[in-house]
UniProtKB/TrEMBL annotation:
Single GO term (MF): siderophore uptake transmembrane transporter activity
Keyword set includes Signal: yes
Residue ranges occupied by any TonB-dependent receptor plug domain in the UniProt entry: 117-222
Membrane-spanning residues: none
Organism: Candidatus Chryseopegocella kryptomonas
InterPro entries per the UniProt record, alphabetical: Beta-barrel_TonB, Beta-barrel_TonB_sf, CarboxyPept-like_regulatory, Plug_dom, Plug_dom_sf, TonB-dep_rcpt-like
GO biological process, one term: siderophore transmembrane transport
GO cellular component: cell outer membrane
This protein's name: Outer membrane cobalamin receptor protein
Domain TonB-dependent receptor-like beta-barrel: 244-687
Membrane topology: Multi-pass membrane protein
Alphabetized UniProt keyword annotations: Cell outer membrane, Membrane, Receptor, Signal, TonB box, Transmembrane, Transmembrane beta strand, Transport
Amino acid sequence: MKAWLISILLTINVLAQDVTVELKVIDENKTAVKDAIVEIQQINNRQRSITDSLGLTKLIAKTGDAKITIRHLSYRQYKSNLKINTDTLIIIQLSTRLIKLNEITVTATGYKANTAEVANFVEVIDEETFDKFLPNSFSDILKTGTSIYIRDYGGTPAQLKTISLRGTGSEHTVFMLNGVRISSFQNGVFDLSLIPADVIERIEIIHSNMSSLYGADAIGGVVNVITKRKNNFTEFNIATGSFGTRKFNFNFSGSVKNLNYLASFTRNYGAGNFHYKYKLGNNEITLNRKNAHFNISDFYINFSSQNISFSTLYLRSARGIPAPTTKFDPSNTATQFDEDINLTLSITKPFASSILKANFLFKNSLLKYTNNDLIIAGSGISSYSHNLLFSGVITYLFKTNFDLLLVPGFEVSFGIANGNSFEKAKRINTGLFLTAEKKLEVQSLLTTRIYIMLRNDRFSDFGNKFIYKIGINSGIPKNPLLSLKFSYGTGFRAPTFNDLYWYGSGNKNLKPETSKSYDFGFVLFSESAKKFIKEFKFEASIFNIDITNRIVWLPSEENQNLWKPINIDEVNSRGIEFSGEIAFSNFLKLSGNFSISQSIRKNKRTADDATQNKQLIYIPKSTGNFGVHLSFEKMFLLLQTNYVGLRYTTETNDRWLQPYVVVDATFGFNYQVKLFSGSVKFSIKNLFNENYETIVGYPMPLRNYLVEFSMQIKNQTKQKGEVK
């Protein structure tokens, strides 16, 4: 009898032994779901953990029956019963709160949301899209977006490039790195050449006034650059092309216990001198652009564990600054040196039904400009500016008993600028904000989401500002999906350090620009796994932006040779934009967008002002893009057409730049040999040799090419078993 009881106890002990359960949580796109709460329940055993940036977590369980529950605010709750017999790996796929739509945004709301659910027009450009496009600069990626015009001062990777979004100025778009703003307090303009394309995982573009969430300057919209966090691979990229371009990129990633790391180094350099056409009388002659050399190096490293991520992005750029071609064959020796250090830290603390997040950024920027060809007061120009920016954002996301999603937050930033052209300046900005989302359903036939965003900012150098925004999204949460979007809100732009403190010209009495804007639109989406057309998406939006107290630099009344900034202009920007995409089977995808906009100044500066109700300079009346993506087995072909309409170059609209159409083509193939994989790509920029300028006196390159070879070695991971 005793032996029989001992045998039973030993059997129970064997059956109830501890085993390791590894879980990988993914979404419909096979993308890792971070910060999902995983819980295993058994008799006398309950374990809880949270997935890391790779969607992975480990739990200790007993052999036998178990109930698995997974919760995440952006996905439907998952529940399942499972019998566990040994150490195993379980892969679980979560469903988003709406149909997939391929795109998730965090920038439009401050938390993960489907792009079809938000109240604004959102574009998401993922790594796969621009990787096949073979961009040589960040602006190559952005110029394919809707209602976007890139002002390019030379075409090579290092030349100054700025953005116009929805007919607003470059200073009306906020740029962010991993959710924290990197736009400068000094001039409010972000140079697109200072973001390396090789470290980008995805880009989110919000076409709407977002000051109610992100504070000053977001009148036109927000561009959020999210850097790579891949794991377990080694990659080499080598490229060569026109104007002596040479490019080398090396990426390496892996993990040590619970610490994941990724390092990337890129060097891009070249003579930069390219052919352009110059009109001499009635003839066009071909000349060679001079002093366009560039040498760019950047280093990126990311460390991440379960709830913490730390990134370093260092960029060093030395470039020649070509003279404007307003005279025949100009030559100069102007140079610019930039050095940029960006440190970002992200901390996430998930709870059972809430998430606490903190993002911090330190930015150190140095710019030196020399030009000995332009003599002022008996000597050449030698200027410098040094900027330091500290920024932090803390948010707490939770749901109330009334199914109301709330995201209160606090933001603080501190900026310092030194230079020899303006007074030493500093700014402390504190902001309190609140985002609220209420979901209403009518018998699962109609879903309406109401968004309210409130924000109050205080600036140390010009005071207090309160802004708000209301948004509505109402649609049919089925396939096909149709959602209507509407938002109305206020915004503002802060005077820059240059506006306030430029030697001899700065105006410390400037007020911030204010705005009122609305946009209305819809998105239609359909997907099918069986039909010839796999996916169809069409989105349209009408927008209107009124800006008052716009800051303009004009000759002063006391001295016409001295320009000063004043609050004078009232500007209206309005238009309509369309964006669409069709995926046929697995081999053909068509995408395109088109926008028509008008940006005019409504007020009179003088009694006989001939510039009233005229289009603002360098704001195109229309822009468009059309892309064809063909793929067959391991080969692919991408054709991208960029159209930019007429742009006036004078405030009286009596001079202009002609519209242009530029076609880029990229052909390539992927390969895989055992552990090695990669691609070979050949790109022709400006396929049909279009002669054009985006800024008067700064011609763009004629036909040019780029060839890239890449090789990736993926680290193998041992799996004990797989259940899906």
